[in-house]
Structure formats: structure tokens, C-alpha cells
Design a protein that fits this description.
- With 441 residues, this protein is an alpha+beta fold.
- It has three domains: 214 residues, HUPs (Rossmann fold, 3-Layer(aba) Sandwich), CATH 3.40.50; 76 residues, Uridine Diphospho-n-acetylenolpyruvylglucosamine Reductase, domain 3 (2-Layer Sandwich); 115 residues, no CATH class.
- 40% of the residues lie in helices and 20% in strands.
- The protein has 14 helices and 22 strands.
- The strands form five sheets. A six-stranded mixed β-sheet has the order 3-2-1-4-6-5, sandwiched between helices.
């Protein structure tokens, strides 16, 4: 931890009376960071603003808020907190991240802070890199996250970037630091937790210093990314004007520059992290650009459409998505909700995002369409059938999404799958006979 202490004190440009906003959940990582900053405060006379978010998702949330508040009061730290009384119907992790950084930025402006610090550590970096490799991302995305990000008026600093979770826990033990454990961190229903509990221990067993290898990997990728960024910037304004991409000029570029430009456009639409965009969506855009069709359209998440019109590709929002559609499933299908259904050869996922069927039990070909009044499905493991409309209500699907949510049927109109929600009696286990695998992503 001495390495971290010296880094904060000497390497980030910290000055006397600087204000630091630090994200504190009350967990072991953020409490260790807060304690470390307290020691630095004695030497540099800095101002610490503790930013706590009560997500109001667990019964312990109120107790954790009170603990962090009292800790700050006892140690002369400014305490700022927001409590979320109502969450929307979107992805919780994505929404929570948006709330968190909006809160942080407001505090940075209010206190004229020079730094925002978070307790992300080397284990977090490994998990992030692995998740993005599996999910698909940009070169920048594959690198995980930076130790320091210069935002112009302030810097985002992750002081624990080079140390592991075990080192943080040891620091807490040595300094008798109280912290809270979020019980949901032990549940493998969350993707990151599965990497944390299964993949990370394996890697550390292979090499106890594997985090150093991932740090080097991250830094190397970021160097390459920065170089490609400069090259792509030189071409971007020449081929992308007034929201349209010049196809002929685009085709003259190297593939790696082309890919960077596509992601740069998507970053402007979806934000820097591109959490809901993967390789499959970028492949769809490339297929559109290189197709022989003069006019065509594809759908991306959040009602974004990409339109090809002769020698131009434009990006826009479709506020009036066509509800009526029916598409034969033959390879890969781009859906109006921005998702994809694809026939794959291997997939051991057992979630509602994957369907395995025996072609002898259904009538081919398979189709995907929007829901219709009166649709019913024989849910796997249940007797009788259930209305699709009732499933949407029970699963809390927004009304605006229900009309375009995909429903998969065979040629005799038997509903065999509501992707992402429910599977029918036709779904097979991994050890049963099946010859068709559908993936929804």
C-alpha cells in the first residue's frame, strides 16, 4: 500500500488544498481508499468529499449509508449522498453507472474538485478485460480502464490500479477498518461475479502475479489504441460529414481504421463504454456497407437505425419503429429492437437467451415475428399454456417494447421461444438430443 500512498502524494499533481471527490460505497475497497486519503490529508491538507449512493436495493442500504456518514463526521470529511427511490425499467447496471457518474460530476463542479477517485483495483481490471474479450469491444475497450484519465478540468484517478483485492483486505485488517459486504456479490447470477468466482481463482492459481500481466496487456493495448486514434482522426472528418459516411472513401481505408471510425460514430451515439453494442452489431454495419443493395436498413439497440442510400451510410433514430415483422430464421437475423437471433453450432448456456431444439419435434422453417393478440406458449416445465401478454406483464417489460419483442415460431405457428424471457416445452437440456441452437443477444 506504500506504493499507492506515494503515487497519490507524488505522481498525480496533487497540491495543497485540492478537493478530491471519492466514490465510497462502504465496501472494503472504497473504505480502504478513504482511510488512505485521510492519511494523505494530514500531509497535504486536502479536502475530501465522500460521494455515497444509496441504491436502495437491499435492506442493509440504510445501515451502510449511516455508517459511511458517521465515519465522515468523525474524521472531518465532507459527506454527500443521494438515495434512489425509484429505478427505471432499463438495465440496472447501466442505469446505476449513469446515476453514479452524473452525481460525481455534479460534486466535482460544486466543489471545484481537481480529482475524482474510485477504488477500482487490479482484480477489477482482469475481470473487465475478460468480460469485454468475451463480449466483444474496441481496442480501447479490451484494454479495460486507465489508471489516470484526464478530463480537462479534473482527472479520474484509480489509485488501486496496481494492487489486488487481497492486498486491500490485508490493509483493512491491519488498520482495523470496518466495511460492509454486499451479499449480491456472492451470487453468480451476475456476469462479473462468475468471472470473479470461477475464472479469476484459476488464473491466480496458474500465476499469483497474473494481475501484473494484465496491467501490461492493458497498457500495451492503450498505446496501440492511441496511435490508431490519431490515424483514424485524420480520416474521420474527410469521410463522415453531416451525419453521413461516404462509402467509397471509407472502402479506401485499412480495415483497422475503418473499424475505429465505426466505433467512433457509435461512441457518439451510445457513450464511451458502448455497453449495449458488441462485435455483432459492428459486423452488421460492415455487411450493410459492402452489400450489393443500393438501399437497405439495419436496426441497432435503443431505436438507432443505420440506413444505406446508394453511396452513403447514415445513422439516425427511429421513433416510429414498424411493429409488424416476420422473418425466416436462416443464419443470423437482425431484429427491430436492435438484438440478434443467430443459429450457432455450440453453446452451453442454459439461460433464456439460448434455445436448443430437436428438429424432429417442430415443423421447419422457423420464423421470428412480433407478438400478436391471442399468442400463447407452452412454457417448459408447466402444464397448459400461458398468454404471451401476461408474460410481458410479469417480466415488467415496458409497453413500448412489447410490440416489437421477438417471438419465435415453427412453420405451424407453434410458439417455441420468447427470447430473453421464456422457453417452451421444446427446449432441450445439454444432455438431451437436439440439432438446432438459437442464440439471442
Amino acid at each position: 500500500m506504500e506504493e499507492v500512498y506515494n503515487f497519490i502524494l507524488n505522481d498525480i499533481g496533487l497540491k495543497k488544498e485540492d478537493a478530491i471527490v471519492v466514490g465510497v460505497s462502504g465496501g472494503p475497497d472504497s473504505m480502504a481508499l478513504l482511510h488512505l486519503l485521510l492519511n494523505i490529508k494530514k500531509e497535504k491538507h486536502i479536502r475530501i468529499i465522500c460521494a455515497h449512493i444509496n441504491h436502495n436495493q437491499r435492506k442493509e442500504s440504510a445501515e451502510e449509508e449511516e455508517y459511511v456518514k458517521s465515519y465522515c463526521r468523525d474524521n472531518d470529511i465532507i459527506f454527500e449522498c443521494i438515495k434512489i427511490n425509484k429505478w427505471g425499467e432499463e438495465n440496472f447496471e447501466s442505469e446505476a453507472r449513469s446515476v453514479r457518474y452524473t452525481f460525481f460530476e455534479d460534486l466535482i463542479e460544486n466543489y471545484n474538485a481537481s480529482f475524482l477517485m474510485t477504488a477500482h483495483h487490479a482484480d477489477d481490471l482482469i475481470e473487465t478485460i475478460l468480460m469485454r474479450i468475451v463480449r466483444g469491444s474496441t481496442l480501447k475497450g479490451y484494454s479495460g480502464f486507465n489508471k489516470i484519465v484526464d478530463k480537462g478540468t479534473y482527472k479520474i484517478v484509480r489509485p488501486f490500479y496496481t494492487i489486488t483485492k487481497d492486498e486491500i483486505l490485508k490493509y483493512n485488517e491491519d488498520n482495523n477498518i470496518k466495511y460492509y459486504i454486499d451479499a449480491t456479490n456472492n451470487e453468480d447470477i451476475h456476469t462479473r461475479n462468475r468471472y470473479r468466482h470461477v475464472v479469476l481463482p484459476f488464473l491466480k492459481k496458474e500465476n499469483p502475479n497474473v494481475h501484473k500481466k494484465f496491467i501490461k496487456f492493458s497498457e500495451t493495448l492503450m498505446e496501440y489504441n492511441n496511435y490508431i486514434d490519431r490515424e483514424a482522426d485524420n480520416s474521420f472528418n474527410r469521410i463522415f460529414l453531416n451525419g453521413s459516411l461516404d462509402i467509397e472513401k471509407f472502402k479506401e481505408l485499412e480495415k483497422i481504421i475503418q473499424t475505429k471510425i465505426i466505433y467512433s460514430i457509435l461512441e457518439k451515439i451510445y457513450g464511451d463504454d458502448l455497453l449495449i453494442i458488441g462485435d455483432a452489431h459492428v459486423d452488421l454495419i460492415f455487411d450493410l456497407i459492402y452489400s450489393n443493395k443500393s438501399n437497405s436498413i439495419i436496426h441497432l439497440p435503443n431505436s438507432v437505425i443505420v440506413v444505406k442510400s446508394y453511396n452513403e451510410i447514415s445513422f439516425d433514430y427511429d421513433e416510429d419503429i414498424e411493429c409488424e415483422y416476420e422473418i425466416e430464421i436462416n443464419g443470423k437475423v437482425n431484429l427491430p429492437n436492435g438484438k440478434i437471433i443467430e443459429i450457432v453450432t455450440n453453446n452451453y448456456d442454459n439461460s433464456n437467451n439460448t434455445l436448443k431444439i430437436n428438429s424432429e419435434e417442430v415443423k421447419l422453417p422457423l420464423y421470428v415475428r412480433n407478438r400478436k393478440d391471442g399468442d400463447r406458449i407452452h412454457i417448459k416445465g408447466m402444464t397448459g399454456t400461458k398468454k404471451v401478454s401476461d408474460i410481458f406483464i410479469n417480466e415488467k417489460i415496458k409497453s413500448s417494447d412489447r410490440d416489437i419483442w421477438p417471438v419465435v415460431l415453427d412453420a405451424e405457428d407453434n410458439i417455441i421461444w420468447i427470447p430473453g424471457l421464456k422457453k417452451s416445452k421444446y427446449d432441450k437440456k445439454n444432455d438431451e438430443k437436439y440439432d438446432i441452437i438459437l442464440r439471442y443477444y
